[in-house]
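sorry for the late reply, my laptop died twice this morning and i had to redo everyting from scratch. anyway the thing you sent over, i finally got around to it. pasting the sequence first so we're on the same page, its 334 residues, then the predicted structure underneath. double check i copied it right bc i was rushing
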Amino acid sequence: MDFIKKMDVTSSAPEAELDMKGPAEPVECLIVGSGPAGYTAAIYAARAGLKPVMVQGMEPGGQLTTTTDVENYPGYPDGIKGPEMMEDFKKQAQRFGTDVRYGLVTKVEFGADGKHRAVVDGERLIETEALIIATGATAKYLGLESEKRYMGHGVSACATCDGFFYKNMDVAIVGGGDTACEEALYLSNICKKVYMVVRRDELRASKVMQQRAINKANIEILWSHETEEVLGDGEVVTGLRLRDRKAGKPVEIKIDGFFVAIGHKPNSDLFKGYLDMDEVGYIKTQPGTSKTKIPGVFACGDVQDPVYRQAVTAAGSGCMAALDAERYLGAKHG
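ok and here's the structure:
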């Protein structure tokens, strides 16, 4: 079999790797990654009779498994816990016949003959003609232990997701780019006061976004400040300890919520060097579709969405990927 490209994840691949040219388990549709995009793709693919196999990845259920309450997903009028919601998605996918497997894809090869291969955990080799990538993205955090401690209890990386919980309260957001300004402005329409913690004495955001943030009455920009500690009472966030970099002294502020807006990293390293990506690593798809430049390879969810990054948009793109895969296989085999 002629393979046109081999990709490796050297940081996580076992030392002893399978021979990619050995016997492989054939599946009609392979979904790499879970979460709203992956599970929705699985539901549609299973209902279309594609007998999908899903390899869940390092974080089964995706980013929502680290979210406490989800209140903006249609169909849950009283809200739902993120992990519970993902379990519902999984059960629905399995109900229609999706083979959900725990594991990590450590290597892939794209076949010039339209047959693509993946190694799972260095132990199993799978071959498919329809590969759906739903590996998501990971929010970047500051790396503080206190930040981890209060994750989901006052610390969030998504103002659009969690801002409503802090209506008429005081919050802080760290970051100086367009995303930080956009989220600060979003929060300013909900919250009483928004502190922007900016490490430098200027914003990296576009001029338009800078002016909007600077001119908003209830946004206070703390220039040349660094976050040293997220403060709390053991259950929820109560404040921040910052360091004034110019004065060289600590500063404490009282807040109810802390938002981190220093960027996301798409989980696309496995496919770098072959699939088209932007400068950050988001996989590029053909406009209006989930199709990548390789026939039979599709991408959906946050791994290809640098703009919206919402569960509902991820689910929608998962639907698109399954439909694109179904039509691709139908056209290929008649």
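The CA atoms of residues 16 and 148 lie 34 Å apart.
thats about all i looked at so far, will dig more tmrw
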